[in-house]
């Protein structure tokens, strides 16, 4: 099989640049934007050798996993563009739900996989990290913003040396391919990108994201640099910041940090 767009993505006019192997889909997308590409276009591969996650952490996708980045040049501010990451999380979760339901119906396999969204940019499966999102943006010609939404998904393999436990679809008993997941992802992205509507629909994106959030209302610790903030995961606000309700009743917005569910005792997890 080869990677291909879903029916809805094709109908929306989205394009695809597919690679047998690539260093980084995000880097390729950014280079194309600097060369004048305006998108929307996916850059996708089933083997990524030099990918990055948040804070320059490596994200390598061995053969059979999925690395895909969507490039679009849009007229929004960087702050508004940052909220697109929540639409991306919803798109991946929706695609995984669809692929899982189809697999169970086709093979009558009694699988039980709980997909959840972990602030700010992860998709969990049964509590373990299955996918991650890296959103990057830079100014291009005419004052417009080139936004790259990178989405990595562990299909056949997952790393074992990560701070937060990871898993893959195959490890969960879901023997599907990167091609199947990408087709579903490209379709769900088309729907969620339309709902986001250059930030105008973020209120609905936020509502849907919170319905699928891991740890909402539960104890959470956020490490940012050398500091740790602890309290209850209260919500996310209109800018996408995580809101922590501290023991003294304050509601503190967190723009960036590594999240651990529980107390500060083990808040080094990310």
Describe this structure in words.
- β1, α2 and β2 form a beta-alpha-beta unit.
- The longest helix has 24 residues.
- Strands 1-2-5-9-8-7-6 form a 7-stranded mixed beta sheet, sandwiched between helices. Strands 13-12-11-10-14 form a 5-stranded antiparallel beta sheet, with no helix packed on it. Strands 3-4 form a two-stranded antiparallel sheet.
- α4 packs across α5 and α4 crosses α6.
- The protein contains 6 helices and 14 strands.
- The C terminus is likely disordered.
- The protein starts with 6 loop residues before the first helix and ends in a 9-residue tail after the last strand.
Element-level helix/strand string: HEHEEEEHHEEEEHHEEEEE
Q: How many helical elements?
A: 6
Structural category = alpha+beta
Helix content: 25-40%
Poorly predicted residue ranges: 265-270
The average pLDDT is 92
Tell me what portion of residues adopts beta-strand conformation: 25-35%
**Biggest sheet overview:** 7 strands, mixed
Q: How far apart are the termini?
A: 34 Å
What is the number of strand segments? 14
Give me the Rg, rounded: 18 Å
Strand order of the largest sheet: 1-2-5-9-8-7-6
């Amino acid at each position: 099989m080869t990677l291909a767009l879903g029916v809805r993505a094709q109908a929306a006019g989205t394009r695809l640049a597919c690679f047998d192997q690539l260093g980084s889909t995000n880097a390729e997308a950014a280079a194309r934007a600097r060369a004048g590409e305006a998108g929307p276009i996916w850059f996708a591969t089933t083997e990524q050798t030099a990918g990055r996650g948040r804070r320059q952490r490596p994200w390598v996708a061995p053969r059979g996993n999925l690395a895909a980045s969507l490039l679009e040049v849009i007229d929004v501010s960087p702050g508004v563009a940052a909220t697109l990451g929540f639409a991306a999380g919803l798109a991946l979760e929706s695609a995984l739900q669809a692929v899982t339901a189809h697999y169970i119906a086709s093979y009558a396999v009694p699988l039980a996989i709980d997909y959840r969204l972990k602030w700010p940019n992860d998709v969990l499966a049964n509590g373990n990290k299955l996918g991650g999102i890296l959103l990057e943006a830079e100014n291009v010609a005419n004052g417009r913003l080139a936004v790259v939404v990178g989405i990595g998904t562990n299909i056949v393999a997952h790393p074992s040396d990560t701070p937060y436990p990871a898993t893959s679809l195959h490890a969960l008993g879901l023997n599907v391919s990167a091609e199947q997941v990408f087709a579903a992802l490209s379709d769900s992205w088309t729907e969620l990108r339309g709902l986001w509507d250059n930030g105008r629909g973020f209120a609905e994106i936020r509502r849907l994201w919170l319905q699928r959030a891991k740890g909402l209302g539960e104890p959470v610790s956020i490490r940012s640099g050398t500091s740790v903030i602890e309290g209850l995961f209260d919500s996310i606000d209109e800018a996408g910041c995580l809101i922590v309700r501290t023991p003294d009743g304050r509601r503190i917005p967190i723009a960036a940090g590594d999240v651990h569910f529980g107390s500060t005792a083990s808040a080094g997890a990310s």
